[in-house]
Amino acid sequence: MTNNDEQNLDRVDLEKNFLGSIESGMSLPTDKMPEHPMAPDVAAQLVQHYRLNEAKADQNLATFCTTEMEPQADKLMLSALNTNAIDKSEYPKTAAMENYCVSFLAHLWGVPDGQKMYKDFIGTSTVGSSEGCMLGGLSLLLGWKHRAKAAGFDIDDLHTHKPNLVIMSGYQVVWEKFCTYWNVELRQVPIDGEHMSMDMDHVMDYVDENTIGIVGIQGITYTGAVDDIQKLDKLVSEYNKTAVLPLRIHVDSAFGGLFAPFVDGFKPWDFRLKNVVSINVSGHKYGMVYPGIGWIVWKKNNYDYLPKEMRFQVPYLGKTVDSIAINFSHSGAHIVAQYYNFIRFGVNGFKAIMNNVRKVSLKLTDELKKFGIFEIVNDGSQLPINCWKLADDANVGWTLYDLESELAKHGWQVPAYPLPKNRDDTTISRIVVRPSMTMTIADDFIDDLHLAINGLNKAHPAPQNIFADEDTVQHMVTK
Ligand SMILES: *Cc1c(COP(=O)(O)O)cnc(C)c1O
């Protein structure tokens, strides 16, 4: 054996061993794809090591998205990962499960009696609420165009008939995207000290004949507050009595849509209301599926609510069905997982889970109040989002941004950020309580919150505390 042969043999053995591999002694490729392959175990471990300091899912209190599913669901998803949800002929059972989920949602959201069959309403899975909002917005826009044309408007004359959409100013960014992509004017109803959700005293001031619809938000991303959609529905009904073009409401219930139906304390916000025509939800928020799924349902399956030009024919079992979604290929795994969650937990299971979530959220509010320095902005008695600000009379030498950094040292992610326009001088902190946040995790968090605040008080004493400290020092010196 030559020296070279021995080295080659060593190398072959070492490649089986991650720590001794050549690659683990080198920096990760980042600019150009590497010339040579590496052993799959080595590559997999390198990627795993690279992810080392990413957030620990259960300590990430910033996200709305699911970070924990049951092992059975994990397995199901893995087995369906190689399917394509759009191939409805090849995966007819996945397509069927998609429709079953749409039907479950339509019923949860109170479709009217007499139209409780799948053919009466219509919907689709999406990649997330963003795609659902986009579709909801588009159906409002195209529906408005048809009605405006029929009413004799010259809709090509953008000076007099530029379409607009009315929404409160704490909207999620997808609505800005929608309006930019489709050249729709975004009319924001501002928030103020008294109105942290849609201002019902003024919303109708923003409406005119070019309004394609109003979006009600059942769960404002910033604060977890909800728009009073029942009130909005009344206002719209009143307006529609004399309107040339009757108005409609789309509800963005990205996170509230799979929470509100299972707990007490919400006014009607869904299809029970006359003018609500479509609703979107994120399956990957309180639908408890990993990121990559959302839903939209239209209350009635007609061309008025979901215009014909938004329905595309795809083959299905020798016939064709409507394809509505914007995205085409994506895995069927998320649909399978959503259906699993629905039949696994059932209504009572969802109730039990969401009531636990609420309990944790209320407990956090109690604990936050005990510090005596916070003002509660959202208390978890409706949607399980905890938001707070520093009270005006809180005499501390640090900010919520400092608190964010301090909590991060304990591994918790709790973002601080300003409120929307008009109130953007106010900074708040937010925790999204998700089903994976058990009371044990909440208790642990509260312990660390005490440590974090004590640490901050020491490092950044409030002005008057400095005097107090000096007094003590003086006292000790003169003694
Ligand atoms: C999260 C959210 C969205 C966007 O949803 P994705 O599922 O992340 O695409 C839209 N609207 C509201 C109110 C949200 O909270």
Fold topology:
Layout: H1 3-15, H2 40-50, H3 71-80, H4 92-108, E1 122-126, H5 129-150, H6 158-161, E2 164-168, H7 174-181, E3 185-189, E4 211-217, H8 229-240, E5 249-252, E6 276-282, E7 294-298, E8 312-316, E9 319-323, H9 333-370, E10 374-379, E11 385-390, H10 400-409, E12 416-418, E13 427-432, H11 439-459, H12 463-478
Parallel strand pairs: 2-3, 2-4, 4-5, 5-6
Antiparallel strand pairs: 1-7, 6-7, 8-9, 10-11, 11-13, 12-13
Helix pairs in contact: 3-9, 4-9, 5-7, 10-11
Bound molecules: pyridoxal-5'-phosphate (PLP).
Q: What are the defining features of this structure?
A:
single chain, 479 residues, alpha/beta, Aspartate Aminotransferase, domain 2, Aspartate Aminotransferase, domain 1, 3 domains, 7-stranded mixed β-sheet, 4-stranded antiparallel β-sheet, 13 strands, 14% strand, globular, disordered C terminus, binds pyridoxal-5'-phosphate
